[in-house]
Specification:
493 residues; mainly alpha; two-stranded antiparallel sheet; 75% helix
Length: 493
C-alpha cells in the first residue's frame, strides 16, 4: 500500500488540478481553467499522431501487395488485407494495456510522450528498405498508439468537463480529420510516385513534430494527467513487470519467427484475431465482478459496444479492400495524370469535416445514434456491391467510391464521438483510460473480423462479399433499434 503521506499528496494534487482520470474532483462538471488552450495543445499532438496513422493506413496495403520490382513485398491481396486488419486492430487493442499504464504507472501526459516517441521510432524503422524492418516497425507503432490514444481522450475529457464531454469529443474528432485529409495526399504521393519508404519517413517526421508541440504546451494543462489516478503498490509493480516481460518476450519470438519464415504469417494473424475478439468480453466480465458499475448498465454498455464492431468492420476496409478496388478497378486518369489510389483515402475525412458540424447538433438517444450509424455503413457496402458488379466489364468511375465514403462518413461522425462519450460516462472512478480503451477494443473486434472475412473472396464473387458485409451491418443496426427500449434506460444520453 502507499504511505499515508504519499496518498494524501496525490489526492491534493488531483484536487488542485483535476487529474484526467478523476473528474470527481469537479462535482459540478465544469471545465478546467484555461480549457481552450489545453484543448488546442491536446489537439496539436493528436493531429500529428493521426497524420502518421492515416498516412500508414493509406499506403500499407498498397506497399504489401506491390511487386518486388516496384519496391513492394509482393504479398497476395488476402494475406496483405489480413495483416493490415491485424495491424489496425492491434492499434485499438493496445489501448487497454496503454490505458492501464496511464492509470496505474505513468499518468496520461507521460504516456503520451512515451507513446509518441515509440510511434516516431516505428515509422523511422519502416523507412528502412528491408523486409524484416516491417514487423519491428509495426510493433513499435502499435505500442505507441496504445499509450497515446486513451490518454489523449482522457485529458480531453478532463479539460472539457463532464457537462460538455460529448461536444468536446465531437469537436476533437472533427478537427483531427485535417490530418486524415492531408496524410494520404502527402504520404501517398511520396510512396507511390517516389519510393514507399519515403512515405513512412514522412509519418515519422510528423509524429516527432507533434511531440515537440505537446512538450512545449504542457504548461497550459495545469497538472492534468501529470500523475496516475490509482498508482501501483511496489508488489503490484513487480508482478506487472514480470507479466510484461513475458508478453514482450513472446511477442519478440513470434515476430522473429515470422520474419525468418519459421512461423506462417496467416497462422499468427488467426491467433491474434481470436485473442482480439475474445479480450474485450473477457475483460468486461472480469470487471463486472470487481467494479462499482451496476450490472445492468455494464450489460447494456457491452451490448451496444459489441454492436458497434459491425460498423468498424465496414470502416476498416477503407484502407485495404477499398484501396485495392481503387487501384485495380477504378478509372483514376484525370487529364493524363493517374491519381494515386492512396489519395482517395482523403475523400472520407473531407466528408467528416463537412458533416461533423451537423452531427454535433444531433440530439437523440445513444441507441438511436448507434443504430443509424450501422444502417449507413450497411448501405455503403450495398453501393459497393453494385460498383463491383459493374467492374466486371471494366474500370468504374470514382464516384462509386465517393458515394461509399459519404455513407459511412455519415455513420462515423455520429457513432465515433458517441462511443467515446459513452465509455467515459460509464467508467467507474479510476478506470477512465481503460474504458476509453475499451471503446477502441470493440472497434478492433470489427477490424479483425473484416480482415479475416475478406479471405472469403477466394471463394465468393466480390459483389456477394460486399452484400454479405453490408447485410451484417444492417442486421446489427436493426437489432440495436429493436432492443432500444431495454438498453437505453441503463445508458446515459
Amino acid at each position: 500500500m502507499n504511505s499515508p503521506s504519499r496518498t494524501r499528496g496525490h489526492s491534493d494534487a488531483r484536487g488542485r488540478h483535476g487529474d484526467a482520470g478523476d473528474e470527481q474532483s469537479r462535482p459540478d462538471g465544469a471545465a478546467l481553467p484555461g480549457a481552450r488552450r489545453g484543448f488546442l495543445t491536446l489537439l496539436g499532438v493528436d493531429l500529428w499522431e493521426r497524420f502518421s496513422f492515416f498516412g500508414m493506413a493509406a499506403i500499407l496495403v498498397l506497399y504489401l501487395t506491390a511487386a518486388p520490382a516496384d519496391g513492394g513485398l509482393g504479398m497476395s491481396q488476402q494475406t496483405a488485407t489480413a495483416l493490415f486488419a491485424t495491424y489496425m486492430s492491434l492499434n485499438f487493442l493496445a489501448g487497454l494495456p496503454g490505458g492501464w499504464l496511464a492509470d496505474r504507472v505513468l499518468g496520461a501526459r507521460r504516456a503520451v510522450l512515451a507513446g509518441g516517441a515509440l510511434i516516431a521510432c516505428g515509422h523511422a524503422v519502416l523507412a528502412l528498405a528491408a523486409a524484416p524492418a516491417l514487423y519491428t516497425g509495426l510493433a513499435l507503432v502499435v505500442a505507441g498508439t496504445g499509450l497515446v490514444k486513451p490518454s489523449l481522450a482522457a485529458m480531453v475529457s478532463a479539460v472539457s468537463g463532464t457537462a460538455r464531454r460529448e461536444e468536446a469529443f465531437s469537436r476533437f474528432y472533427m478537427c483531427i480529420q485535417v490530418s486524415a485529409l492531408l496524410a494520404p495526399v502527402l504520404t501517398g504521393f511520396l510512396a507511390e510516385k517516389v519510393t514507399w519508404h519515403l512515405g513512412f519517413a514522412a509519418a515519422a517526421f510528423g509524429m516527432a513534430a507533434g511531440l515537440a508541440q505537446f512538450r512545449i504546451g504542457l504548461r497550459v494543462l495545469d497538472g492534468t494527467g501529470s500523475a496516475p489516478t490509482r498508482p501501483l503498490t511496489r508488489a503490484q509493480a513487480r508482478t506487472a513487470a514480470r507479466r510484461t516481460a513475458v508478453v514482450l518476450a513472446v511477442g519478440a519470438v513470434a515476430t522473429t519467427a515470422v520474419a525468418l519464415g519459421a512461423l506462417p504469417l496467416l497462422a499468427l494473424l488467426a491467433l491474434l484475431g481470436v485473442a482480439t475478439v475474445c479480450l474485450p468480453f473477457v475483460y468486461l466480465r472480469s470487471l463486472g465482478r470487481r467494479s462499482t458499475v451496476e450490472r445492468a448498465r455494464l450489460t447494456a454498455f457491452t451490448t451496444v459496444m459489441a454492436a458497434s464492431a459491425a460498423f468498424w468492420m465496414i470502416f476498416a476496409q477503407s484502407g485495404s479492400v477499398l484501396s485495392l478496388f481503387a487501384a485495380h478497378h477504378t478509372d483514376r486518369d484525370i487529364l493524363g495524370f493517374t491519381v494515386p489510389a492512396s489519395w482517395l483515402q482523403s475523400v472520407h475525412p473531407l466528408f467528416i469535416l463537412l458533416l461533423a458540424p451537423l452531427a454535433g447538433r444531433l440530439r437523440t438517444t445513444t441507441t438511436a445514434k448507434f443504430a443509424g450509424a450501422l444502417a449507413a455503413a450497411g448501405l455503403s457496402f450495398f453501393v459497393m456491391a453494385a460498383a463491383a458488379l459493374l467492374a466486371r466489364t471494366g474500370d468504374v468511375s470514382v464516384t462509386w467510391l465517393i458515394a461509399v465514403y459519404l455513407l459511412y462518413s455519415l455513420g462515423e461522425v455520429v457513432l465515433a464521438p458517441a462511443g467515446l462519450a459513452l465509455a467515459a460516462a460509464v467508467a467507474p472512478p479510476g478506470y477512465l483510460n481503460r474504458f476509453l480503451a475499451l471503446n477502441g477494443m470493440f472497434a478492433a473486434v470489427g477490424v479483425v473480423l473484416g480482415g479475416q472475412l475478406y479471405r472469403l473472396t477466394a471463394i465468393l464473387p466480390l459483389p456477394a462479399y460486399f452484400l454479405l458485409m453490408g447485410g451484417t451491418a444492417l442486421a446489427t443496426g436493426a437489432f440495436v433499434a429493436a432492443r432500444s427500449s431495454h438498453l437505453q434506460p441503463h445508458l446515459p444520453g
